[in-house]
Predict the structure.
Amino acid sequence: MLKTKRICLWSGPRNISTALMYSFAQRSDSTVFDEPLYAHYLSSTNAAEYHPGAKEVLESQENDGQKVVDEIFLGDYDTPIAFFKNMSHHLVNLDWDFLGEMVNVILTRPPKDMLLSYAKHVKNPTMQDVGYEKHLEIVKYLHAIDKKPLIVDSKDILQYPQSRLRELCGTLGIPFDEGMLKWPAGPRKEDGVWAKHWYHNVHRSTGFRSYKSKNEELPENLKELHDQCQEAYEELLELA
C-alpha cells in the first residue's frame, strides 16, 4: 500500500487557505480536500443559524466528524500526498488523536485584515468563528504529543509566494513544484458547496495576489474581538 503523507492545514477564515488548497491541487502527486469537517461543525454548534448556505453544507457532507476522521483523514489514497484544508474552529467534539498521524500546518493572518473581510459575510462574529484561540489549543496539544506544527502567516506567502512555498515544501519534506504558483481562474471540482458564498475572489485569481494591508477602521462592534484575537495571534507567532 502506498505510504501517503497527510498534510492538515488548520486555518482561520478569510486567510488564503483556499488559494493554498488550489496551489496544492496543481501537484500531480496530491489529492486535496476542502473543509471535510464543515458539516460536523455546523451540526455540533449553533453556527448553522448564521452561516450562509448552512443547509446545503449539511446535506452535502457527512455530519459525523468521527466518520470523517476515519474515512477521509485516515483513508487510503493512491497519491503520495493528501492535503486537507480545514478551519481550526471546525475541530470540535472530536478525539484529537488522529492529529498525531498528520503533518500539521497552522495558517494565520493579522486579525484586523481577517475581521474586516469576514464581517462582510458574518456581521457579528465571535471568537469561536475566527479560530485564533482554537489555533493556540491545537498548537499546545501538538507540542504536548511531540508533533510540533508549522506555523505560517499568510501575509508572508502573499509577499514572497515562491520563496515561502519552496520553504514550506522543504519543511514538509516534499519537492517544490513551480506549478503551485499558478492555477486556472474559476472554480475547482474539489470546492465545497459553500464556494458560491465565500470563493468569489479566489475564483477570479490565477495565483497568489500581492499583499495589501487593509486601511479601513474597524467597526465598533469588532474592536473588542480584535483585541482578543490580536493577543492570541501574537502568542501564536511566539510559538512558531
